[in-house]
Amino acid sequence: MKKDTIFQDQHSPAQFSFDAKVASAFDDMAARSIPGYFETENIAAALALKHVPANGRIYDLGCSTGTTIARILDGANPSACFQIVGLDASRPMIEVAQQKLSLIPTPKNVEIVLAAGDLAEFAFQACDVAVMNYTLQFVDPALRLDILKKLRASLSRSGIFVFSEKEAFDSPEQQEFFDDLYYGFKLRNGYTQGEIDRKRQALAGVLRPLTAQANQDLLKSAGFSRIERVQQNYQFVTYLAFPE
Fold first, then answer.
1. What is the C-alpha separation between 244 and 197, in angstroms, rounded?
2. Nearest Cα to Cα of residue 156 among 228, 46, 59
3. Helix (H) or strand (E) holding 33
4. Cβ–Cβ contacts within 10 Å for residue 56, how many?
5. Rounded to whole angstroms, what are the CA distances from 131 to 87, 190, 195?
6. Who contacts 135 (Cβ-Cβ below 8 Å, separation ≥6)?
7. pLDDT band at 1 (very low <50, low <70, confident <90, very high)
8. pLDDT in tens, 143-180
9. CA 135 to CA 163: how far, in whole Å?
10. For residue 233, which of 35, 80, 166, 207 is within the disulfide window of CB 3.0 to 4.6 Å?
11. Could you tell me which of 23, 19, 22, 21 has the C-alpha nearest to residue 97?
12. What distance in Å separates the CA atoms of residue 216 and residue 218, rounded to the nearest whole number?
């Protein structure tokens, strides 16, 4: 796992993007930047394996380096024949995912797809499980409801949607409190204050978090009838949503 040093100096990128540098260090970046990141992946994999039928389909939307897919494959019965489709808009992330998954001996049908446009244009096939971990927060807010509606329409009646996001707070005081907690977490994980400040500036306008209420309202407007919060670490939240 390559260490994340992308924002160590003054020559750091002015705007964050999922380019080759980020892709090569993404696993370390995620582990040190997202509280409970690997447990989130474990939860997503466990829920996927619980709910996918023998010949079903799982979507991992914004699959990044394929960590969730690897967790699913690691926990699956060797005789299982469900399909996993991972989508990502970053070619470098796709390449790292393909390399990681190539090391896992499995007969399962895994497809990693480069989503050249946005998810609102993707033609979803019928599926039983959809996972979207820390992906929608990078999508234009005006497109989010359409994406979730299309996804909801593709899910089987007994399907599930696992949805993780970084969330914002309505109260400036609460936002400041959780930001301080979060930056303390990153300092404890070896980032300097300079790295934290430079990355925060690079993410401004790129990562656009919504409040918990706004995210839940989006899910309900898209047609999800039951929404359960299954994990929260600081402002990082995972929901389990059911279409019926």
1. 43
2. 59
3. helix 20-33
4. 20
5. 10, 29, 30
6. 61, 62
7. confident
8. 999 999 999 999 999 999 999 999 999 999 999 999 99
9. 9
10. 35
11. 23
12. 5
